[in-house]
Amino acid sequence: MLKYILRRLLMLIPVMMGVTFLVYFIISLTPGDAASIILGDGATEEAVIELREKMGFNDPIILQYTNYIKGLLSGDMGISYDTGKNVSTEIIARFPNTFKLTVIAIFLSVVISIPIGVISATRQYSIFDNIGMILALVGISMPTFWIGLMLIILFSLNFSFFPSGGMDGWKSLILPAFTLAIASTAGITRTTRSSMLEVIRQDYINTAKAKGVSRKVVIRKHALKNALIPAITVIGLEFGVLLGGAVLTETVFAWPGIGRLMVQSIQTKDTPMVLGCVIVFALSFSIVNLIIDILYAYIDPRIKANYS
């Protein structure tokens, strides 16, 4: 298991290199001049040329990227073109907000989706099952930003139950958390239902029933544990997706997290800040997937045997 973990951690190095290069190259193709953005509209042409030369913006893109990687390997994520502050300091200050929002959203998704998926599977083709699957389909189909706007109109403008944006107390978490949770709830529900249907048709489930074990015990102790293995995969993936999806949600709700910071940085062509945000997202997604793989070993002994 330790060798597997170390191997996965080493694999993060080429992943980070590929992600950062791709983002760096794409940003270099976007319109606008970073030097002009830094100095503002009132800057003279001479000042812009001088700053462009000083910051190395005239260097080839490969050289610029190499210099960035050298600084990154030494622990320096660069200085923000927009604020003039250290990128790592800005990200550290905002990451807890994004992480808190994502954790609450995935918690809501799991609490809602697992019971619905289990009940839908055990009552296949019932009214509850049909309603659950229709709601899941609707949840997957709706764009995240549209859900956020609809929730703001309904619960902030019409009824004034919750604030429409910002971060001011626990009420500010409700709407953005539910916005993120809706789409992931739909996906986890469908996966749990499909997995549960497959498990409850296995021979060992029929054997347990034949021995006189009650239906509730069979579902809870025998079927659910095995059915959760695919669901855990989806939950892990959804957690990474929610971190990325927080970009739109945080923008809609003016939530001071990394997602909103990245959108603002893209608008000002703040390359170091954009790269810093992308690195955090990619690293978080990879670590979550590693944790999920390790959890497999404790849920299914067969997987643990493969690691050893």
Descriptive report:
By secondary structure, this protein is mainly α. It has two domains: 17-73, no CATH class; 93-267, MetI-like (MetI-like fold), CATH 1.10.3720.10. It has 13 helices and no strands. It is elongated, with a radius of gyration of 24 Å. The chain starts with a helix and ends with a helix. The model has no long low-confidence stretch (mean pLDDT 82).
List keywords for this structure.
308 residues, mainly alpha, MetI-like fold, 2 domains, 13 helices, 0% strand, elongated, Peptide/nickel transport system permease protein, transmembrane, transmembrane helix, MetI-like
| Number of structural units classed as domains | 2
User: What does the main sheet amount to?
Assistant: none
Share of residues in strands: under 5%
Question: Could you name the CATH homologous superfamily of the largest domain?
Answer: MetI-like
What string gives the helices and strands in order?
Answer: HHHHHHHHHHHHH
Uncertain ranges: none
Dominant shape: elongated
- Arithmetic mean of pLDDT: 82
- Examine the coordinates and then state which fold CATH places here, giving the name of the CATH topology of the largest domain: MetI-like fold
How many β strands by DSSP?
0
Total DSSP helices: 13
Would you identify the CATH architecture of the largest domain? Orthogonal Bundle
- The helix content is over 70%
- SSE class: mainly alpha
How are the elements arranged and paired?
Blueprint lengths: L1 H28 L4 H6 L5 H11 L5 H13 L13 H36 L4 H15 L2 H15 L12 H29 L3 H8 L4 H38 L5 H10 L3 H29 L1 H7 L1
Subcellular location: Cell membrane
Organism: Marinisporobacter balticus
Family: Belongs to the binding-protein-dependent transport system permease family.
